[in-house]
Amino acid sequence: MFESFNSILKTIDxxxxxxxxxxxxxxxxxxxxxxxxxxxxxxxxxxxxHMVKNEASGDGEVSGFASLCTALSATIGTGNIVGxxxxxxxxGPGALFWMWIAALVGTATKYSECLLAVKYRPFYYIxxxxxxxxKWLAKLFAFFGVGVGLLGIGTxxxxxxxxxxxxxxxxxxxxxxxxxxxxEYSWSVIIxxxxxTIFAALVLIxxxxxxxxxAQVIVPFMAVTYFIVTLAxxxxxxxxxxxxxxxxxxxxFGLRAVGGGAIxxxxxxxxxxVARGIFSNEAGLGSAPxxxxxxxxDAPAQQGLISMMGTFIDTIVICTMTGLTIVITGSxxxxxxxxxxTTRAFQMGLPLPAQFSSFILMRCLVFFxxxxxxxxxxxxxRCLEYIIGDKKNVIKAYKWLYILCIFIGPFMTVSAVWTIAxxxxxxxxxxxxxxxxxxxxxxxxxxxxxxxxxKK
Length: 456
Fold this sequence. Notes:
2 strands, 21 helices, single chain, globular
C-alpha cells in the first residue's frame, strides 16, 4: 500500500515540478532582478543596515527584525539539513548549483513579494493590487498555503526530520521498538514526537507575539551554531573544497553522467535544486510576506530589503555549508537517505567521535525544525482566515488539527513526506508568481521612491 501511495505522489510531483514551473520561477526572479537593476546585490549593505536597526515608526505588530526572525524561523528548518541532503541524493551534487541560481534570482522575488505585502498587506496584494476580479487567485493562493502548512513544510517534514535525527542518535539500530499502524517504530521516535508536539502546542496557543519572541532568541542562536560547526568541517577539509566545487558545477550540467544521459541528469539536478531551494528559502512561495506584513516599517521597500536577507542567509549561507560538507565527504552517494546523509557527513567531516558529531547535528536540527513548525502555523492560520474570515472557533479547531499533524508526522516515510511538501510548494508558488509579474511596476515605483527619499 505504501509503495502504491508513494508512486502516485511521485507522479503528481513530477507533473507539478515539471519544466514549465522551473522556467516560471527562474524567469520571474530574473525578470525582477533586471527590473530592479540587481538590487539584491547593489543594496545588500543597506539591507544589512536595516536588518539590525529598529524602526521608529510605521504600522505593524512587531519590529522588522522580529518579522525577519519569524520568517527565518519558518524557512530555516529541515530544508537546510534534510532538504539539501535529499536533493543531492536524488539530483547529484549539481542540485546545489541550481539552489544557488534559484536563490540568486529568488532574492529579488522575496524583496518584491514582501514589499507588496507591506503596501497592500498579504493576500490583498493580489486582490487589491490586481483588482477585485482576481480575488479568486488570492483565495487559491491561500488554500494552497493552508496545505503547505498543514501537510507540507509546516508539520510532516519538520517533525519527521527531528524524530529521525533523535532516532539516529539514541537508537540507530532500532533495538527498542513497538509496532504501530502495521510498522515498527523506535521508542525514541515515539517519545520525541510526543514531547515536540506538547512543546509546540504550548507555544502555538500564544499566537504571533509569542512565536516571534521565541524566534528572536532561537533563530540567531541556532544559525550561528550550525554555521560554526559546518565551517569547522570545511576548514578541516579545506583541501577538498576546490574539487567539490568542480564536481558541483560539472554535475549541474550533466557532465558527469554515464551513458549519454547528460540531459536527463541535468534536468534532475535542476528539478531537485530548484524545488528544494524553494522549499528551503521560500522565495516566490508567498509565505514570507505574511510575516513581513506584520512588521513595523517606515516604507514597504525598507521591509522588502530586510526580508530579502532571509533568502541570502538561508540558501547562500546555510544550505551552501550543508551541501559542501555532504559533497566533500561523499555521503550523498553511499545509499543513505534523509537526515542520515547529513549525519554521516558530520561524522566523516569532524575530527570528533561519531556519537558526538551526531549529537551536534541532532541538536541543531531540533532547533531548526521546531521554529519552522511555529512559523508555518502562523502562516497557514493567516491563509485560513483570508478564506473563511474571522471565525475564531474554526481557527482554534485548525490550530488543534495542525498540532495533530505534528503528532502524525513521525509515522510517515521520508519519501512521502518530502514529495507531499514539494507538491504543495509548487501549487502555492504559481498564483503568487502570477501576481508578482502583474505588479512588477508597483514594485519598481515603490523602490525608486524609497531610494530617492534616502538621497534627499
